[in-house]
């Protein structure tokens, strides 16, 4: 008869491992200690002055110290170093996320004061104090960005197709790649000055039109579209091209029917990201488009209003009462952030819809 020995149950501590709840307990304790310290430092002051961001940073630093000390005692030096490195990565993520969260929180809280129906249904024509809205700036932003997209996407896509499909190893392709890399780092104000100078030579100094803003934004968009589309076209498997060539399909039709549909999801995403990158530019639009207080939907006649410039003008030159101008600036900034968020969500949906279907 064989007797099987049953090992006694052991706890996580006796096995040299911290229980899972210990990490969370140390994290909560670290944040609690940091919150208490800053609460005592703010005694007698305004509760709104409590520094949440600094509390999070100090709490994460305390957590790093505690997790290393406790793990060294309860486990081993090797486990302690592993947990410390993991905590450092998480701390870096939290510190990087804090400015974004703080920015979004500030814009949302301050922007909701004027985020109403009047703000999206009226302009600033004949408004000198409270009231008014940014419908003229909203339409101007959409039209100018649409114009920049119509100009940039065909040029960017055809350039990337040439670089990937026709220009490999050629000096012209290397020169284009170099120029695209240089254009990627051009300051936005330089793009605005370039377009303004061209139109000043043709139509005279002081010319400001909506189409000028679209051209200035397209100078910034084209290199982003080229680089994004080029990388996506390069990852299309060559086997797909060779299979089409083996069937006698010409190269241009292979690109149109095989290569582009395969990469269309990623290309769409890169285009949306390029739009989101330029839609908030202020300096080139301030030079090329200007600012008006009423609606103007004609991009080839007169100045137009845009949300970035509208936000800048409301915050830079407040009138009486100043609070009304500041509230409109925050509401305009919130509207701009929401537009960018919608564009990014739309890019994800389009990428999912147009992604190549796999399986049966």
TrEMBL record:
GO terms for cellular component: plasma membrane. The chain crosses the membrane at residues 21-40, 52-74, 86-113, 133-164, 176-203, 258-279, 329-351. It is a multi-pass membrane protein. It comes from the Bacteria. One of its GO terms (molecular function) is phosphate transmembrane transporter activity. It holds the Pfam family BPD_transp_1. Its main location: membrane. It is found in: Cell membrane. Residues 138-347 form the ABC transmembrane type-1 domain. GO terms for biological process: phosphate ion transmembrane transport. InterPro entries: MetI-like, MetI-like_sf, Phosphate_PstA, Phosphate_transprt_permease. Keywords: Cell membrane, Membrane, Phosphate transport, Transmembrane, Transmembrane helix, Transport. PANTHER family: PHOSPHATE TRANSPORT SYSTEM PERMEASE PROTEIN PSTA. Belongs to the binding-protein-dependent transport system permease family. CysTW subfamily. Part of the binding-protein-dependent transport system for phosphate; probably responsible for the translocation of the substrate across the membrane. This is Phosphate transport system permease protein PstA. It comes from Microbacterium ginsengiterrae.
């Amino acid at each position: 008869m064989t007797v099987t020995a049953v090992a006694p149950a052991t706890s996580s501590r006796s096995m040299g491992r911290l229980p899972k709840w210990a990490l969370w307990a140390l994290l909560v304790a670290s944040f609690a200690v940091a919150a208490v310290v800053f609460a005592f430092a703010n005694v007698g002051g305004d509760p709104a002055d409590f520094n949440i961001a600094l509390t999070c940073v100090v709490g994460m630093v305390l957590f790093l110290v505690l997790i290393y000390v406790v793990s060294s005692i309860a486990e081993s030096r090797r486990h302690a170093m592993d947990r410390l490195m993991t905590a450092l990565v998480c701390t870096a993520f939290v510190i990087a996320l804090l400015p974004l969260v703080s920015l979004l929180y500030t814009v949302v809280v301050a922007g909701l004061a004027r985020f109403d129906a009047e703000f999206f249904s009226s302009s600033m024509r004949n408004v000198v104090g409270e009231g008014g809205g940014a419908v003229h700036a909203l339409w101007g932003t959409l039209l100018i960005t649409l114009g920049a997209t119509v100009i940039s996407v065909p040029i960017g896509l055809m350039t990337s197709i040439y670089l990937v499909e026709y220009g490999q190893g050629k000096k012209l392709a290397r020169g284009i790649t170099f120029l695209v890399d240089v254009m990627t780092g051009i300051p936005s104000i330089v793009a605005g000055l370039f377009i303004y100078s061209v139109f000043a030579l043709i139509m005279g100094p002081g010319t400001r039109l909506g189409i000028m803003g679209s051209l200035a934004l397209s100078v910034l968009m084209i290199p982003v579209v080229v680089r994004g589309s080029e990388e996506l076209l390069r990852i299309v498997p060559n086997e797909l091209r060779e299979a089409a060539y083996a069937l006698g399909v010409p190269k241009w039709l292979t690109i149109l029917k095989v290569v582009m549909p395969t990469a269309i999801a990623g290309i769409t995403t890169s285009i949306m990201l390029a739009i989101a990158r330029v839609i908030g530019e202020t300096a080139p639009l301030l030079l090329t488009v200007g600012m008006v207080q009423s609606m103007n939907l004609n991009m080839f006649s007169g100045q137009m209003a845009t949300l970035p410039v509208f936000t800048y003008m409301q915050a830079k030159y407040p009138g009486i009462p100043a609070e009304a101008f500041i509230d409109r600036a925050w509401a305009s900034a919130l509207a701009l952030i929401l537009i960018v968020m919608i564009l990014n969500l739309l890019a994800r949906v389009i990428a999912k819809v147009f992604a190549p279907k796999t399986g049966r």
